[in-house]
Model the fold of this input.
Amino acid sequence: MLPPDFRKAVRDSGLGERVLCIAKHPRWKCLTGFGLSRVAEFENELDREERVALERGQDFDRDLRAQQLYGFARVPFDDSGRFILPERFFKLGALTDAAFFQGGGKQFTIWSPDVLAEMGAGWEDAQEACLDLAQQARNGKGRK
Done:
């Protein structure tokens, strides 16, 4: 289920459509979620990433990066945020029986709590938030 705060942001970003876009994160073992309006930014993002790579003297595989950006699934969700995650994303995001939604802005991430717990320095706040929500759910006080 898409949490309420994320649900509103995705719906607003999708010009009122209840469509969640889901993709594998290009670096981390998690998923990304975003609204439909972000797709309009992909070409500019590709141009920027290519320019930065060239300035740094690094290789940039535009075709691969384009496949990563455009390889998302469009998943409808209902008013309560329920959606059906395509099967392949369980493996790509290492998801089993729980998921932690993190972030905001143009996109957010969807983590397996076990994978998030293994992330290194800089992830402490997300890790603690995940643990806190899991404890609330065990106590029957968390969001369902």
